[in-house]
Specification:
Order of helices and strands: EHEEEHEEEEHHEEEEE
Strand content: 35-45%
Oligomer: single chain
Length: 227
């Protein structure tokens, strides 16, 4: 199964981890479904901190995650999950959508894309319009206007990733535990150490090397599954 590392802001990680958010909206998506997604909680402490509630309550049971404004950090010292991979889920379905939004609100429309099983022809049917309630926004924990601001005005395409088989780690993983095969197979090995995004470990039997992540993706990127 393919695997990706996906960067998610703390306030959305909290909703995913606690079962409120079951759809992740993205402007792109992997081609092959299903796939595994590792959850990287973005390191944005100036906005929100994500923490393990057990550091507050002293619980030993099921992990529950919480999110607080940065000025309350002293309440949960030692429990920060920002900048770490806190869990994983399986994306068992990806639905393609079209949107048409305009700044003057003259047109506000979502269309669900589908493909004919016989000839593969692409078509789109009206899904929601003019801020009307719909399961996409509800499951993604987004308002109509938050969705509009994310996908942008004009004619756009975006994707709804359905979250299933969620697993939150007892111990978060570090970013540098994840790797992918280096795409720069012809690069000089001496240039690897200057790469601003990854550091490398040469393979003994082949000319390529494994790229261990040093920086998170802005949205998502392919990685190798953890052993």
């Amino acid at each position: 199964m393919n695997a990706v590392l996906i960067s998610i802001q703390p306030k959305w990680v909290e909703k995913i981890a606690n079962g409120e958010k079951t759809i992740e909206v993205r402007k792109t998506a992997p081609k092959q479904v299903p796939f595994k997604a590792y959850i990287y909680c973005t390191n944005t402490p100036q906005l929100h901190h994500l923490y393990d509630l057990r550091h507050v309550n002293g619980d030993t049971g099921k992990i529950r995650l919480g999110c607080v404004q940065h000025n309350k950090y002293s309440l949960v010292a030692g429990g920060w999950l920002n900048g770490k991979v806190i869990g994983e889920f399986i994306v068992d379905n990806v639905v393609e959508f079209e949107s048409e939004f305009h700044d003057d609100n003259s047109t506000e429309e979502l269309r669900r894309v589908w493909y004919d099983e016989d000839d593969g022809e692409r078509d789109a049917e009206l899904f929601a319009e003019d801020s009307e309630p719909n399961y996409l926004c509800t499951a993604a924990c987004l308002t109509w206007y938050e969705l509009k601001n994310y996908v942008g005005t004009g004619d756009r395409i975006f994707y709804a990733w359905h979250i299933s088989d969620l697993k939150i780690y007892d111990k978060p993983k570090e970013l540098h535990e994840f790797k992918r095969e280096c795409p720069k197979t012809s690069i000089k090995r001496s240039d690897c150490i200057t790469c601003p995004f990854e550091y490398y470990e040469p393979r003994k039997s082949v000319s390529s090397c494994d790229a261990y992540l040093k920086r998170p993706p802005q949205s998502w990127q392919y990685v190798q599954e953890l052993e």
